[in-house]
Design goal:
Order of helices and strands of chain B: HEEEEEHEEH
CATH superfamily of chain A: ApbE-like domains
Shape of chain A: globular
Number of helices of chain A: 6
Shape of chain B: elongated
Radius of gyration of chain A: 18 Å
Distance between the termini of chain B: 67 Å
Low-confidence stretches of chain A: 171-176
Radius of gyration of chain B: 26 Å
CATH architecture of chain A: Roll
Largest interface: A-B, 78 and 45 residues
Structural class of chain A: alpha+beta
Number of helices of chain B: 3
Strand content of chain A: 25-35%
Strand content of chain B: 25-35%
Oligomer: heterodimer
Largest sheet of chain B: 5 strands, antiparallel
Mean pLDDT of chain B: 56
Low-confidence stretches of chain B: 17-49, 92-106, 130-147
Number of strands of chain A: 12
């Protein structure tokens, strides 16, 4: 059973291959993403994050989920030498860069608790895999061609529990800046895919290494639990030494 | 004998002079950075009064474009509170085969390939959507201000 809906402005696809999958189980996950949007959207004036940014909620009164996300953001900031930060130029909190991966991971935990074993959740191109696919083989994922949205340039095979996330800058003329150096536009790298022990880990590091520019791949090379595939503006890909472990359909 | 004493005292004077030059001469010289100030001030222009001065004025300084065997190089140096806080590579050698090899030496484990479209059926696709891109841009612009 597979279903895609547009939520938070992005396509979210849930596929469960277990025979006992129900529409109700999938609805529950989409409802969870609606709750995430209501809580963390900085575009919604009634969201908890908007209230926090208006100073209406004391720190010790944050919801449990909000506290978890803030802790995760702080941890990521430390682990990436400041290349990840949820505080924006007005001193407001914008945790959207970390919420997606975390929420996808939480959604898959709900499915596990509900007794499902073989499924994936893909939200805006970031994916958490569990179990095997409908052919009882490893789940596979294409990596989108940053120069042609209808093509893929790589296929990777992922173990149960692993996640994949891609950060990108596909639209020409718009630039992402290195947070440590606003004079330096990141236009060298157009797409950075990270495979990690789960989607939450893959997502938070994908965001940070993308901001590092070309040296992001070196940063990732030093982290053996992650693999990376970085595509530059000339269509040349750079990969960590362990990346090719994922391009063969191992069992 | 007399010549020896003369030689030794001469050496002492020379060394002493060099010491004085090292201690005071270079400090004087460093008041004038050898790079041109392009007047793009960044960050805090007024270092705290009680901080020891290093002789560097706050601002962003663009160096001359210089040629190396492997291509041209140009940097911009950012000074704030009297300290070098960043060096930006405006131009760097990148367009010659030998340079590519040297870049690879810096990261020996990193393999490269030219991307190619694959015609394989896949379960799902990872990629940055326009929305996640908007997310990223928002984050990045936020971060750029927070630095």
């Amino acid at each position: 059973m597979i279903e895609t809906r547009i939520l938070m402005g992005m396509p979210i696809t849930i596929e469960i291959v277990d025979k006992w999958a129900t529409k109700k189980a999938i609805d529950k996950i989409f409802k969870y993403f609606e709750y995430i949007d209501k809580t963390f959207s900085t575009f919604k004036p009634d969201s908890e994050i908007s209230k926090i940014n208006r100073g209406e909620i004391e720190k010790n009164s944050y919801s449990t989920d909000m506290k978890i996300v803030f802790e995760l953001a702080e941890k990521t900031k430390n682990e990436t030498n400041g290349y990840f930060d949820i505080i924006d130029n007005n001193g407001k909190y914008n945790p959207s860069g970390i919420v997606k991966g975390w929420a996808i991971y939480c959604a898959t935990q709900i499915l596990r608790k509900d007794g499902f074993e073989n499924f994936y959740v893909n939200a805006g191109g970031d994916i958490q895999f569990c179990g095997k696919n409908s052919e009882n083989k490893l789940w596979n994922s294409g990596i989108k061609n940053p120069f042609n949205q209808n093509e893929i340039v790589k296929v990777v095979y992922l173990e149960s529990g692993q996640g994949i996330a891609t950060s990108g800058n596909y639209i020409r003329g718009e630039h992402i800046y290195n947070p440590k150096n606003r004079n330096k536009i990141i236009d060298e790298i157009v797409s950075f895919t990270v495979i990690g022990p789960n989607v939450q880990e893959a997502d938070r590091f994908a965001t940070a290494v993308f901001a590092m520019g070309k040296s992001g791949i070196n940063f990732l090379e030093k982290m053996p639990e992650f693999a990376g595939y970085m595509i530059d503006k000339n269509g040349v890909a750079f990969m960590t030494s362990n990346f090719e472990n994922f391009t063969n359909e191992h069992t | 004998m007399n010549k020896k004493i003369l030689l030794v005292s001469g050496l002492i004077v020379l060394l002493g002079g060099f010491f004085v030059y090292e201690k005071f001469g270079t400090a004087q010289n460093s008041q004038t950075p050898i790079i041109n100030n392009d007047q793009q001030t960044s960050g805090n222009n007024n270092p705290p009064q009680n901080q020891p001065t290093t002789g560097f004025k706050d601002g962003s300084y663009t160096g001359a474009e210089t040629s190396s065997n492997y291509g041209n190089a140009q940097v911009k140096v950012i000074i704030s509170s009297g300290k070098i806080t960043d060096v930006v590579y405006l131009t760097y050698p990148k367009d010659r085969a030998v340079t590519v090899m040297k870049s690879n030496l810096a990261m020996p484990a990193i393999k490269q390939e030219v991307i190619q479209a694959q015609s394989v059926n896949v379960n799902t696709i990872s990629g940055a959507t326009q929305t996640s891109e908007a997310f990223l841009q928002s984050i990045a612009s936020a971060l750029s201000q927070a630095s």
